[in-house]
UniProtKB/TrEMBL annotation:
It is found in: Membrane. PANTHER family: PROTEIN PIN-LIKES 2. One of its GO terms (biological process) is endoplasmic reticulum to cytosol auxin transport. This is Uncharacterized protein. The chain crosses the membrane at residues 20-44, 56-76, 88-113, 160-182, 297-318, 330-352, 364-385, 397-420, 432-454. Keywords: Auxin signaling pathway, Membrane, Transmembrane, Transmembrane helix. Pfam families: Mem_trans. GO terms for cellular component: membrane.
Length: 457
């Protein structure tokens, strides 16, 4: 009996020690992120005003155009080989699966919560499209920073490489599927006349809006993706799908206008096209594919090209690399990403959620579904993939990143699409605010579960 009780005590102590270790690995990184965000919020307060709105915009542009590309290029380029590229094929597939499952859940949320009719597609997108950008990088950087090294000495390099390898598919989905899902409803769009009087009023309003915008803190969406709103045109803020697929004459007129200057043979070819094919072509031509080439995506493509060729890889990466000084400089710049991102995020969250017409019930439904209900489904997807043998069994960070992709709040770039389309901006900002506040608790809880799963496989 005494021996049995001693064994029970030893088992309880061992289990308690493992649980404490898992909690430390999960809570401490989140507390690091939260501390940096809190400092950003504190420094953005009007009484202190160190992180001013103009400083936030400048810092966010540095993150977007310099720090993030440097981090992606150095970490992904050193890890990338042709064999690894073939081995990592499930990373973008996992992103697509998470979006597919999330959008199905978004339809259910929209049917149950019954948001205003004009926000039905908005609800689907904000529930289904998770963040694949800066937030996962910040979490991985916080987990790998320290002496524990839960995923090995190359913890940060592997994690950043996996996240960066998934970004290109996420951006493609957002600039195609999400872009059209978030188009403004036709009944709420007001056609602007082109007479001189209204043009002058519009110019005055634009100047006033620019002045107010320069004096206020940028939203979360415009802070992480600062160039998206600058690329907005009036054409992007008009309903396209409703006009093309509802009125046959619209697609014909659009085709005629787009074919201006073409040869008569091209006009005949357009006229000979089936109606459905013509409509699909018009929609494809109006999709802003040109905006896909953002600095982070360019850095990812360069890293892949450099990495898969051994000669160029040896030229830039490694202890004896002739251009190692150049990549070391980029590494130093990339190390500034996590603190700068968290300071910017804290500064933008300091202004509060703002107004929203989405409704409390729908806001709670999207947040709970995105942060609480979808991660268990993601666990099932990743474990099934592991059982099927499509995930490397000896790479724990690989599986951790796959699990983390199902746990993130709504993609900030999806919110930036509302700014580009000119509809639902306030609702997206408020929703992203509440999701990022809630994600502090949910991500910490799920990291404990993920670490337990990874350690047992």
């Amino acid at each position: 009996m005494r021996l049995l009780s001693e064994q029970s005590v030893e088992l309880a102590v061992r289990v308690g020690g493992e649980l404490q270790y898992m909690i430390e690995l999960s809570v401490v990184p989140v507390m690091k992120v939260l501390t940096m965000c809190a400092l950003g919020t504190l420094l953005a307060q009007p009484r202190i005003s160190i992180i001013t709105p103009s400083a936030t915009r400048l810092l966010s542009k540095l993150v977007f155009a310099l720090f993030l590309p440097c981090l992606i290029f150095t970490e992904l380029g050193e890890s990338m080989t042709l064999a690894n590229m073939l081995k990592w094929w499930f990373i973008p597939v996992n992103v697509l699966l998470s979006y597919f499952v999330g959008c199905i859940a978004g339809v259910i949320v929209a049917l149950v919560c019954k948001p205003p009719a004009r926000f039905f597609r908005f609800t689907v997108v904000m529930t289904g499209i998770g963040n694949a950008g800066n937030l996962p990088l910040a979490i991985i950087g916080s987990i790998c920073h320290g002496q524990t090294h839960p995923f090995g000495k190359k913890c940060n390099q592997a994690g950043v490489a996996y996240v960066a390898f998934s970004q290109w598919i996420a951006v493609i989905v957002i600039y195609t599927f999400v872009y059209h899902m978030l188009e403004p409803p036709e009944e709420y769009y007001e056609l602007v006349s082109e007479d001189a009087e209204e043009g002058s009023v519009k110019g005055g309003n634009a100047a006033l809006n620019a002045t107010l915008e320069s004096e206020s803190m940028p939203s979360v969406t415009s802070a992480e993706w600062p160039d998206v709103k600058d690329a907005t045109t009036e054409e992007m803020r008009t309903p396209l799908l409703a006009r093309v697929f509802r009125y046959p004459s619209v697609s014909s007129q659009t085709s005629a206008v787009s074919a201006d200057g073409d040869s008569p043979r091209a006009r005949v070819r357009c006229l000979a096209e089936p109606r459905v094919i013509r409509k699909i072509r018009v929609v494809a031509e109006k999709t802003p594919i040109r905006h896909l080439m953002q600095p982070p995506i360019i850095a990812s493509l360069l890293a892949i090209v450099v990495g898969i060729f051994p000669n160029t890889n040896a030229l830039l990466f490694g202890d004896d690399a002739p251009l190692g000084w150049f990549t070391d400089s980029l590494t130093i710049l990339g190390a500034a990403l996590v603190p700068c991102v968290m300071l910017v995020l804290g500064g933008t969250l300091s202004v509060g959620p703002g107004s929203s017409e989405l409704g409390l019930k729908t806001t709670i439904g999207i947040t709970v579904t995105r942060l609480v209900l979808l991660p268990p489904i993601g666990i099932g997807v990743v474990l099934l993939a592991h059982r099927l043998g499509v995930i490397p069994h000896d790479d724990k960070m690989f599986m951790f990143v796959l699990l983390l992709q199902h746990t993130m709040p709504t993609a900030i770039l999806s919110g930036a699409m509302t700014s580009m389309r000119g509809y639902g901006e306030r609702e997206a900002s408020a929703l992203l605010f509440w999701q990022h506040i809630s994600a502090v608790v949910t991500i910490a809880a799920y990291i404990v579960i993920f670490l337990k799963i990874v350690s047992q496989l």
